[in-house]
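Note to self: keep these together.
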Amino acid sequence: MTRAYCPKCNYPKATCVCHGVSQVRNQVKVVVLQHPSEAKAAKATVPLLELSLNDIQVVRGESPQDFNELREQLADSNAPVWLLYPSEDATTLVSAETPVQEGTLLVLDGTWKKAFKLYQLNPWLAELPQFALPSSQAQYRIRKAPNAEGLSTLEAVAQGLELVEHLPQTPLLHLLDVFIERQMQGMPDSVKQRY
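Structure:
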């Protein structure tokens, strides 16, 4: 017996999140470099970003060749590009005095280990201005993280857009809450207690 899926959000109808989606009109483009292993992850937050943001692009891959087309696209745009990744060379991102209205925010999507591998395999990323987020408490509690400040991709993008473009985080974080609630509804009580 096949599961029925919502035609709008593409989640199973039992975990549909449509009622939590608000459109976010970002002017700074978000480009997610997604490790292929994340594409089918049930708890991935990138699909939530795709439902909400009006300017987002997801590029799956691992090696530099996988991102050749994206690199050409970024070079042709002449707009600034920033990497949101806590590398050793990253500067802590602070709120822009005036909202940035043009540019691209690159985000790596994968487990901490896979995101690090993406960064290591793609030296071109180290050539970009790199920013880390100020420490903050993660609210995405239904997945493993190395520490309490380990943000999901959605949380990182929400905070990044707030600091760069002054967009409120509320619509994205509300959708994340709806997603968590829907995911937990189907969990056995013994599993819920862990979260």
